[in-house]
Write a structure and sequence with these properties.
Layout (H helix, E strand, L loop, with lengths): L2 H14 L5 H13 L3 H6 L7 H15 L4 H5 L1 E4 L2 E4 L12 H10 L5 E6 L5 H9 L3 E7 L2 H14 L4 E5 L15 E6 L32 H10 L3 E10 L5 H10 L3 E7 L5 E7 L4
Parallel strand pairs: 3-4, 3-6, 4-5, 6-7
Antiparallel strand pairs: 1-2, 7-9, 8-9
The structure holds glutamine.
Organism: Vreelandella subterranea
Family: Belongs to the protein N5-glutamine methyltransferase family. PrmC subfamily.
EC number: 2.1.1.297
C-alpha cells in the first residue's frame, strides 16, 4: 500500500479512537516506522514501504489508538527547537513550558550566571536555556535517577556541555551558600495538579508518572514548598520562576510576597492562561 493510503487509513482509525491530532499522529508515527521525517512523506507519499515497516506502523497506530502518547512511542519530542528523548519516567515536554524558558531568558540577559532547574525531568527547561546562554552554568536536578540519566543523555546528544544533571530530592543534594554557589535563576515545572482533577483521566497524562503531575493541597503543596526553600539558594538579586496551573496564580503571588520576594508577577502562556509566577529577592 502507498504511504499516502496508509496515512489516510491510520488517520481515520485514530480520529475514531478519539485522538485530537489524528493526522499529525499518523504522520509522526509513519515517519518513525520508516525512519524518515514528516516532510519526506509530503514528497514521497506515492511510494510504498516494506512489509515489516508497515507492520511496525500498524503496531504504533494500534498503541496510539489505545491512547498511548506519541512521544513515548517515538521516544522523542521537540521542545524549543531541540530534539529531546522522552521516557515514561518523565513528563512529556509541553509547549506551555516554553513560556517559562522565554521568561528566564528575558530576565537573565547577562552573559554569565547560574541557573537551577529543579525537577528537571527530560531536562527540557535546563537544556533550552543552556542552548541560548552558552556562558551560563546550568544545573538540573531530579528525584528520579532515571530522569537524571535521560536529561544527561539529552545534554550529551545536543552537545550542551554547559548543562549538567544530578540526583536530588528538591534542594537536598545541593550545598547552600556560602559553602555552595548561589543561583541567579531558579526555575521549576513541579507537579501542580490536584489528585481529584478529571484532567488526569484524559489524554496523554494518563500515561505520565503521577509523581510529575500530582501534588497535595489542591496541587499547591510542591509550589509552596519551593517558594519557602528556594530563597536560601538564590543570589542577592536572584529570581524564582514557577510554572503552575491557571487557577493557582493569586495564591502563589500571595505566598511569594509573604515569603519576602519582590517584583512578584504572573505571566500568561500563549493560550492566555496565567502560567508562570515569578519574584526576585531584592527590588531591581
Ligand atoms: N501542564 C501539565 C498538564 O496540565 C501539568 C504539568 C505539571 O503538573 N507540572 O498536563
Amino acid at each position: 500500500m502507498a504511504l499516502d493510503a496508509l496515512l489516510r487509513k491510520a488517520t481515520e482509525r485514530l480520529a475514531k479512537a478519539g485522538s485530537p491530532s489524528a493526522r499529525l499522529d499518523a504522520e509522526v508515527l509513519l515517519g518513525h516506522a520508516i525512519e524518515r521525517d514528516r516532510t519526506w512523506l509530503y514528497t514521497w507519499g506515492d511510494k510504498g514501504c516494506s512489509k515489516w515497516q508497515q507492520a511496525r506502523f500498524d503496531a504504533l497506530v494500534a498503541a496510539r489508538a489505545q491512547g498511548y502518547p506519541v512521544a513515548y512511542l517515538t521516544g522523542e519530542r521537540e521542545f524549543w527547537g531541540l530534539r529531546l528523548m522522552t521516557s515514561p519516567d518523565t513528563l512529556i515536554p509541553r509547549p506551555d513550558t516554553e513560556t517559562l524558558v522565554a521568561l528566564a531568558l528575558r530576565r537573565a540577559a547577562q552573559p554569565q550566571g547560574r541557573l537551577l532547574d529543579i525537577g528537571t525531568g527530560t531536562g527540557a527547561i535546563a537544556l533550552a536555556f543552556a542552548s541560548e546562554r552558552p556562558g551560563w552554568q546550568v544545573i538540573g536536578v531530579d528525584l528520579l535517577p532515571a530522569a537524571v540519566a535521560l536529561a544527561q543523555t539529552n545534554a550529551t546528544q545536543l552537545g550542551l556541555g554547559n548543562a549538567r544533571f544530578q540526583q536530588s530530592d528538591w534542594f537536598s543534594a545541593l550545598a547552600a551558600p556560602p559553602e555552595g554557589a548561589a543561583f541567579d535563576v531558579i526555575v521549576a515545572n513541579p507537579p501542580y495538579i490536584a489528585a481529584d482533577d478529571p484532567h488526569l483521566k484524559r489524554g496523554d497524562v494518563r500515561f505520565e508518572p503521577a509523581s510529575a503531575l500530582v501534588a497535595d493541597a489542591d496541587g499547591l503543596a510542591d509550589l509552596l514548598y519551593l517558594i519557602v526553600t528556594a530563597e536560601t539558594y538564590l543570589s542577592d538579586s536572584g529570581w524564582l520562576m514557577l510554572e503552575h496551573g491557571h487557577g493557582q496564580a493569586a495564591e502563589l503571588r500571595e505566598a511569594m510576597r509573604v515569603a519576602g520576594y519582590q517584583n512578584v508577577e504572573t505571566v500568561r502562556d500563549l493560550g492566555g492562561h496565567e502560567r508562570v509566577t515569578l519574584g526576585s529577592l531584592i527590588t531591581v
